[in-house]
Amino acid sequence: MTTATVHLVRHGEAHNPDRVLYGRLSGFHLSELGYQMAEELADWFVQRAEQTGSAPSILVASPLLRAQETIAPLAQRLQLPVRTDDRVIEAANGFEGMSNIKRQLRRPQNWGLLLNPFRPSWGEPYAEQAARVAAAVHDLRDELIRNHGDGAEAVIVAHQLPIWVTRLSAEGKKLWHDPRDRECSLTSVTSLHCDAGATRPRVEYQEPNRHLLADAIALPGA
Predict the structure, then answer these.
(1) Does 164 map to a domain?
(2) Which of 74, 141, 195, 207 reaches 20 to 30 Å from 35, CA-CA?
(3) Contact 8, 158 (CB under 8 A)
(4) Which of these, 60, 62, 58, 75, lies nearest to 28 by C-alpha position?
(5) Is residue 220 part of a domain?
(6) What is the layout of strands, in order, in the sheet containing 202-206?
(7) CATH number at residue 102
(8) Number of domains within the chain
(9) Does any domain span residue 132?
């Protein structure tokens, strides 16, 4: 059976001292810690390739700066170009640009955004996020199998929420969830092992930079 693997990687820590829910806003580059995460993520993939004999053949990133900066060291190590795919961009969010989200939730003018947490009403529907990322994954899966053979791999650097709902969908679980329960830390790797003809991929989750997470600022949904 032919297998291709697409690794969904969350970007590194962004420079965000005001703790803004930055969403799709431009200009949020990596913090000093975020750059370290990106470098060590690249080291992890290179070391993994040396151990398994299989390096990523295709690199893809969200158009947002923090994703592009996260994948750059890996692209340099592997001497591969980076494709930009709008389908793996961060989720749209009605609270984008705001800080102190707990305080924003208490403001009556924002209550209309909270009418339906299952969709959710404050932003892009979970199902739409999962569908667009899955489409990107499926296209890469087919290209890997067609052009690079059995065991070929690709890396997509994207964002927490789209990665998480894509994983939930791949595992056949409901998409509604508590943001605090997401297993998708900064520069984590959610690997979708796609067997040709299989209905669902096999999911594997790893945290190459677990040792750096204690010092990171990570906002749910950002």
Answers:
(1) yes
(2) 141
(3) yes
(4) 62
(5) no
(6) 82-84, 58-61, 152-158, 3-10, 189-195, 202-206
(7) 3.40.50.1240
(8) 1
(9) yes
Calculate the CA 161 to chain-centre distance: 7
| Contact indicator for 75, 59 with CB cutoff of 8 Å | yes
pTM confidence score: 0.93
Structure tokens at 149: 């053979």
Judge contact between 49 and 83, C-beta under 8 A.
Answer: no
Instruction: Give the tens place of pLDDT for each residue, 110-137.
Output: 666 676 887 897 899 999 999 999 999 9
In the structure, what pLDDT confidence band is assigned to residue 94 with cuts at 50, 70 and 90?
A: confident
Torsional sign, CA 190, 155, 126, 94: positive
For position 31, what pLDDT does the model report? 97
Contact present, 85 and 60 (Cβ < 8 Å) = yes
Q: Which residues pair with 156 in a beta bridge?
A: 8, 60
Residue 221 included in any domain: no
DSSP state of 213: G
Q: At what angle do helices 126-147 and 160-170 cross, to 10 degrees?
A: 80
Task: Domain of residue 85: give its range.
Answer: 3-215
Tokens of residue 65, six digits: 């700066």
Which run of H or E residues covers position 131? helix 126-147
Contact 182, 164 (CB under 8 A): yes
